[in-house]
């Protein structure tokens, strides 16, 4: 994204100035907008570094039809796609298997993206969020790497203090979303406290409790909130991604 431009992850908003203004050699610079730099407010951030065989950052032009994007370098397990125009950002995870959703209230639409080879993915949708004719799209695609990040899918059961373990590392950031449009994507960062019952949504909502309740030494814990662990019919499925941000490549 050239210049002082950032993509809000929720809402039908185009690239916007005065948020994240630049990515620097050892950090980043923010502007004065309240979303990133209001006086006295605490902000939580996550930064990814692209790496061969692990993460690819790129752009493509939408064509309104079948559109194959190559140059990824691997078969992606997750992708984030962000329109430069006033269209929602979306998550595809894993590509070609699970549905595609937005970052807000879990709206599901599919199919959208499917794998072609270990170097390409195919847009098989005319949805403006991923493939509007003439629109520029920014994406980053990730391949699941042991000890770096892990994903799980589970069925909600409504039980409190529900643990998911066996990750092989302590997560530093967990993002979780339901496959029902009425519930919101939430996240919990280690900077919020590993044992602090606090989660945030990607829209303008205050801190929530009873969602992601803790980051455990080997996983995470959820409460009974519908965003993370609904029990009533119909069955609600959840997709969680946990990142080990302390991981260093050998």
Question: Please, could you describe this protein's structure?
Answer:
- The protein has 3 helices and 19 strands.
- It has helices at 34-37, 128-131, 226-229; strands spanning 20-24, 27-30, 55-61, 67-70, 78-83, 90-92, 100-102, 108-109, 113-117, 120-123, 136-142, 149-155, 162-165, 173-178, 186-189, 200-201, 212-216, 219-222, 237-243.
- Strands 3-11-5-6-7-8 form a 6-stranded antiparallel beta sheet. It has a 5-stranded antiparallel beta sheet with strand order 12-19-14-15-16. The protein has a 3-stranded antiparallel beta sheet with strand order 4-10-9, with no helix packed on it.
- A hairpin with a 2-residue loop joins strand 17 and strand 18 (219-222).
- The longest helix is centred in the first third of the chain and has 4 residues, at 34-37.
- The model has no long low-confidence stretch (mean pLDDT 90).
């Amino acid at each position: 994204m050239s210049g002082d431009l950032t993509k809000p992850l929720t809402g039908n908003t185009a690239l916007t100035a005065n948020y994240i203004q630049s990515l620097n050699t050892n950090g980043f610079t923010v502007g004065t907008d309240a979303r990133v730099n209001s006086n006295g407010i605490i902000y939580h951030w996550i930064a990814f570094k692209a790496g061969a065989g692990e993460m690819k950052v790129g752009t493509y032009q939408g064509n309104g039809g079948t559109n194959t994007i190559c140059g990824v370098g691997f078969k992606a397990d997750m992708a984030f796609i962000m329109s430069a125009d006033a269209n929602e950002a979306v998550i595809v995870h894993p590509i070609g298997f699970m549905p595609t959703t937005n970052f807000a209230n879990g709206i599901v639409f599919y199919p959208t993206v499917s794998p072609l080879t270990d170097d390409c993915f195919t847009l098989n949708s005319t949805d403006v969020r991923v493939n509007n004719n003439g629109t520029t799209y920014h994406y980053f695609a990730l391949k699941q790497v042991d000890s770096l990040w892990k994903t799980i899918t589970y069925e909600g059961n409504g039980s409190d203090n529900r643990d998911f373990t066996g990750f092989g590392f302590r997560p530093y950031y967990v993002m979780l979303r339901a496959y029902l449009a009425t519930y919101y994507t939430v996240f919990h960062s280690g900077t919020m406290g590993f044992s602090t019952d606090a989660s945030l949504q990607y829209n303008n909502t205050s801190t929530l409790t009873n969602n992601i309740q803790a980051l455990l030494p080997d996983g995470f814990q959820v409460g009974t909130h519908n965003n993370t662990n609904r029990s009533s019919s119909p069955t609600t499925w959840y997709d969680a991604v946990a990142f080990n941000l302390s991981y260093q490549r050998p």
